[in-house]
Fold:
Amino acid sequence: MTLRAAQSDELPAARAALEAEHYLGAPKPAECDVVQLALRGEQVLAILVWTRGSQKLAARDAWLAWDPRTRARRLPLVVQNNRFLVLSRPRQPNLASRVLGLAVAALPAQWQQRRGVTPLLAETFVDPERYQGTCYKAAGWIEVGKTAGCGRHGDDYYVRHDKPKRLWLRPLGDDAPRRLRDPLESLPGEKPRAFGQSPVPVKTATSLADALFTVTDPRRAQGLQFPLHAMLAAAVLAIACGVTTVAGLFRFVQELNPAQRRALRFRFSPRNRDLVPPPGESCWRDVLQRLDPAELARAVVQWQLEQTKLPPLLAIDGKTLHRGLATLVTLCDAQTGEPLAQLARAGPGHEKTLAHTLIESLPPGTLDGSIVGGDALYADPALVRPLVQDQGAVTLVQLKDNQPTTVAGAEAALAQGSPLFFRHRPRPATAASTNGTCAPSA
Structure:
C-alpha cells in the first residue's frame, strides 16, 4: 500500500466517491487544501482531505495552554482532517489505522508544498452517534474532549446544533506539543503579529490594571496622558506573552483594539471617543527607567494570588540562574510544581532577601490553613515567623547536620507543649471554662 497526494485530474473522481459514500458528502473546493489517496497498485483504497484548523476549539486550546493571542499567531501550524473515507469494496481489518499512519507521516511535506508552512498538529472530529474513533486511537491520535455543539453557517457566524463531536489531536513530531506551548519560541510559519487579540479576558485585564493603581507614579503630575496603572498592566501582559524589548511592548499595545486598551484603563482621545491611543516608545522608556520594580512586583504578586485558589500544600524555594545572572524565589504548588508567585533580582545570593519580600507582599491571611515547606535555608525565625503569625500557615523546614545549634534549639522547642511561633486565639466560653484562657494553634 502506498499513499500520495492526488493529482488535479484525480480530484473529480475523489469528490464523486466522497459524495457517494461519505455521510457528510464532499467538502467545498476551498476546504480541500491537500487530498491524499491510499492505493494498492492502481486501486484506490481510501481518501483523506485536509484543510486549515478551526479558529477556536476550547478543548484543543486548553490542551495546548493557548491564550487567544498565541492561538491567533500559531493557528497556521494546525491542520484538520475534515474527511476520511475507506472505500466500501476494498475494506479489510486494520486498514483505516494503517492508512492514517501513512497519511500523518506524509502530511507535513505535502502541506509545506501546498501552503508553504510545515504543520505541527493535526485535528479531527468524530461523530459519537456514528463512530467511536477506534482507528484514530489505534493510529496514535489523542482524544482531548468534545466540541461545543455548534456548526458554521456562512463565513462569519455559527449556529448551535447541540450535537457535540469528539475532538482528536495528533502531534506531527515528537516535540510538537512543547514547541506549540512555548510562548518564547519563534516557530517557522506562525504569524508575526496578532492584531486585536488580548491574552486574557476583559475582566481580568481590568482587575490587573485596578490592582496596579497603588504603584507610585515616578512622573510629574502635569500632562500625564497615559495612566501609570494602564501602562503597567499592559507591560505585565506583554512580558507574560514573551515580549522582551521596549519596541515589542509598544507593538503589543498597538496591536490591541480600542476596546481592549480601554479595558486596561487607557483613556480615549478627547477628539474622538472611539479612539484609544497607545503610548509611544519614548513614553515607555521614560516610565520603565524610573519605576520601582520591587513595588511593582509586590502589587503583581498580590493581584496574582487574589486570582488563584491556593492548594493546601505549598513549597517555597530559590534558584540562581545562569552563573549568577539572577536569583529567583518561587512559591509553588508542592505537588505539581506550578508557580503561584515569583520574585527575581539581578545577581546571586539574594534568596533570603527575596523570600522576605515575597512573604511581605502577600496580603495577611493569604496562606491561612496551608502547609508551606522549604529547605534548610528557610530554617530562619525571621522567615518562619511571618509565615505562621501573619499568614496563618503551618510551616515545615529542613534542618541539616551542619546546623547543630539550630537542631538543638528545635529539639528543645518541640519538646514544649506549643508549636513554634504559635498564635493565641480566644477559646469560646463554655460552662466548664469561662476564665478567658487561650488555645494555641499553629
Notes: Residues 202-291 form one domain.
